[in-house]
TrEMBL record, chains A, B:
Keywords carried by this UniProt record: Isomerase
Pfam families reported for this sequence: DSBA
Keyword flag Isomerase: yes
Domain DSBA-like thioredoxin: 9-198
Biological source species: Roseibium sediminicola
Protein's UniProt keywords contain Isomerase: yes
Higher taxonomy: Bacteria, Pseudomonadati, Pseudomonadota, Alphaproteobacteria, Hyphomicrobiales
Protein name per UniProt: 2-hydroxychromene-2-carboxylate isomerase
A Gene Ontology molecular function term of the record: isomerase activity
E.C. number: 5.99.1.4
InterPro entries the UniProt entry points to: DSBA-like_thioredoxin_dom, GST_Kappa/NadH, HCCAis_GSTk, NahD-like, Thioredoxin-like_sf
Ranges that cross the membrane: none
Protein family per UniProt: Belongs to the GST superfamily. NadH family.
Enzyme type, top EC level: isomerase
Length: 205, 205
């Protein structure tokens, strides 16, 4: 008898995003409790921000928003029991990590790899554009490091990640993390993760 | 024996702000449960947005953010059991309401008046720049309508409200609603109301 497909929730995340870190660390456990399948959708916010007229993160463009974000993250990480270090520079260059995650988005290790990147970046303050670090994290999470670093540089991956950015825009996404349920209803921000999970589970029942 | 002073939480709100509506409708009941005193701090976001380079609400400047805000508000209002109608135009001219609330900020009817304005605006879609509407809402909430409309136009009120905007900036405020606990710790957004109340209560204990 075929196993019934679980309802799906798309998780759109940007490796340079602090609030994506919070959701990435929490989503797989929460989704298991709700019997949902997570669709991992790594993407890049840079091209979307540029269209909004922002050459960099709004947390850098608007210092009061940036200071607040740091304090908010400190409090939230404390509440979630997560380490927090803002890497220098912020935001990090997330292109390499995003390409690897895009290439591996349907692999069983994608959750573990995603969390490993975020912990290296926002727990330890490491530089996620470093290929050596990426290789280490891939190995740690049981992924074929060399193959994935190669896969990250293929034309298919580069075009696929660009298409993911278009998909994000078509869903109305303007920030990260974002969550999209099967009806297309959009939820933005780590503080909407629980509501998105609830909506995805309700829709399916 | 003098009654012990309750710990205080500053509630910074802008009448034109949809998310301020959500907090205004909830804060007094929640504060009573936590034995906190609310310090009502009506202010204007316009001058702060102008300094950030935004001639109007970011929800108008960035259409994807605006569409999302409408959907998010619909869902939140449904969850809270509140009516929701976005007034036209959005954002509303909130200067008159803010001046009245500033002049009456320490009066016993300030919570009821604040809620009445928000319900007229976001529950019924009414024009809150209308002096007749303000008079009706003041009367409804047991406030001296004529005196308050006069007080709204005094030099003291106008200067006081401008000073409130400076106070907001000095606290690092860049959006509404915002909450400030006695140590100066800032919380932004209706989704941080519970955390702000908890921090204010904890600090006092």
């Amino acid at each position: 008898m075929p196993r019934q497909a679980l309802p799906r929730l798309e998780f759109w995340y940007e490796f340079a995003s602090t609030y994506s870190y919070l959701s990435a660390m929490r989503i797989e456990t929460l989704a298991r409790d709700c019997q949902l399948e997570i669709v991992w959708r790594p993407f890049l916010l840079g091209p979307i921000f540029k269209k909004l007229g922002w050459p960099t993160s709004p947390f850098n463009l608007y210092p009061s928003k940036g200071s607040y974000m740091r304090r908010d993250l400190e409090r939230l990480c404390e509440a979630y029991g997560l380490p927090f270090t803002l890497p220098v520079p912020f935001p990090q260059q997330s292109l390499l990590a995003a390409r690897i995650a895009h290439a591996g988005r349907n692999q069983p290790w994608i959750g573990a790899f995603t969390r490993a990147v975020f912990v290296a970046e926002f727990g330890q303050g490491l530089d996620i554009s470093d290929e050596g670090l990426m290789a280490d994290l891939l190995l740690e999470t049981g992924a074929p490091a060399k193959d994935m670093l190669d896969a990250a540089q293929t034309r298919e991956t580069k075009i696929g990640l660009r298409a993911a950015v278009c998909d994000a825009e078509n869903r109305g996404i303007f920030g990260a993390p974002s969550f999209v349920v099967e009806t297309g209803d959009l939820f933005w921000g780590d503080d909407r993760l629980e509501a998105a999970l609830e909506a995805a589970a309700k829709e399916a029942s």
